[in-house]
Amino acid sequence: MFVPLTIKDHIDRARLVYGTRIGIIDEPNQPAPPLPELTYGEFASRAKAMAKGFEQMGVPIGGRVALVSQNASRMLTFLFGTAAWGRVGVPINFRLNVEEIQYIIDHSGAEVLLVDPELSDTLKNISVKKFIVLGADTDSDIFVAGEPEEWEGDENATATINYTSGTTARPKGVEMTHRMLWTNAAIFGWQAGVNDRDVYLHTLPMFHCNGWGMPFSLTAMGVPQVVLRKVDGEEILKRVADHGVTLMCGAPAVVAAILDAAETWKGEIPGAGKTRIVVAGAPPPTSIIEQVETVLSWEFIQIYGLTETAPLLTMSRGRSEWDELSPGERAKLLGRAGTPALGVSLKITEDGEICARSNHVLKGYWNQPEATHEAIQDGWFRTGDGGYLDDNNYVTIADRKKDVIISGGENVSSIEVEDVLFSHEQVIEVAVIGVPDEKWGETVKALVVTEGSISEQELIEFCRSKLAHYKCPTTIEFRDELARTATGKLQKYKLRAPYWEGHEKQVN
Question: Among residues 112, 122, 149, 130, which one has the least CA distance to residue 31?
Fold first, then answer.
């Protein structure tokens, strides 16, 4: 028997098994009046009504609907109200500028754009067939009673198109199929231990790879989902205390915000011994990982992946064999990207690039066959990330492949140098890049944001006390801020560009 795997499976199970349980708790402080607390039965009805609303707007099955919003219950509903009834959701990063958003609307062919009220003035001139500002005034247009057109279900159909951050060029639209999202949700949820006793806090933007696919896993397992609109360390701790949050996901910056708030938190840190946080986006410094255990008493889990892989490729989670180790030793082990997830195969090319195979690798880039062919070759997806597998099959990300610094024939991992610099108490942000050098080809340069007074030489000597000298920065430049993408990733190509002006390529 063959039954197609579709997103509708997740919301159908929530309705059947957890229909009377409170499932969605909306952000109370937002420009649009929040939706009431919804049981999973009510949430399923809302998603169906949204599908009917899109049908009434003339969006056919297979048609695209875009949304630009910070985290909200309406956005969570959108993830199901599109895909579960055969339409294609296009969640867009709310931090993008008007030109970038217009490009995505045009490129995806979205017929309807739903917009957060906070962005309505900024985006009012966007060209699209139907422009709707989210809120109570438009709920009657979006949520329509009645049975939407039945969709037969095709696991190979595109469910969402998620546009990459565009660190090097125009963003590419990653086509995620129902099968891709389904398998990612199942494996991610299983390996992260998602169960119906969990309470989840949406610290991760829902637009970002569909919240890494976690909303699908959570919904299927009946997990109460608490919506957080904006990341704030103190507010996160408060929500953990108020709702009994046991699970959240986010970038290293989220962890840093929580740790900062913990310094002034009165009383026991909420969630101690119960809460786990899943981190991705960049390898966090070992000192940060250790503090999650020692300061918060939370469990730290790291994953590695990309939008193109839905995202789960590897997971690094504590093991029973490590129970007797010190927090520092465990942190060092958890600093690796982890072992391949169930159903994922990895290989490292001769030049150090990580390639992957799995059921949740992208279908292709929307209307970009050449980019698709470049990314998927001989049945393997080329991640563009450099790294290596150790003897225990743990992956360590050495950096974006193009960011590996080759100085005098020696490979230098910029992340390794960044980790050391970040461990200095006065360093707030750091980016390590290679810059051209006549003698060595490239040398190591650090761009840092600091607090307090410290000299370039003092930081160089600090690195030399912890690293082989060839790995240490030869120069350090102090900055007020570092260029980042809309999702918080360092834009190293922008940071490198001034130093490589006049060179044909950014490698000597």
Answer: 122
Cα dist from 459 to 248, 423, 432, 450, 495, whole Å? 35, 11, 13, 11, 20
Q: What are 475's two structure tokens?
A: 């120069």
Burial class from Cβ neighbours inside 10 Å (0-12, 13-18, 19+) for residue 151 reads middle
Q: What is the pLDDT of residue 129?
A: 98
The CATH number of the domain holding residue 423 is 3.30.300.30
What's the pTM value of the predicted model, to 2 decimals?
A: 0.84
Query: Given this model, what pLDDT does residue 10 score?
Result: 98
Q: CA torsion sign, 366 to 371 to 377 to 380?
A: negative
Joined tokens for residue 323: 């129970």
16-19: long-range pairs with CB below 8 Å, 24+: 17/222, 18/196, 18/222, 19/44
Domain that holds residue 146: 1-179
Please indicate, yes or no, if residue 430 is contained in any of the structural domains. yes
Chosen domain end from 134, 153, 179? 179
Answer with the residue of higher pLDDT: 10 or 437.
10
The mean pLDDT value for 227-249 works out to: 97
Type of residue numbered 493: Y
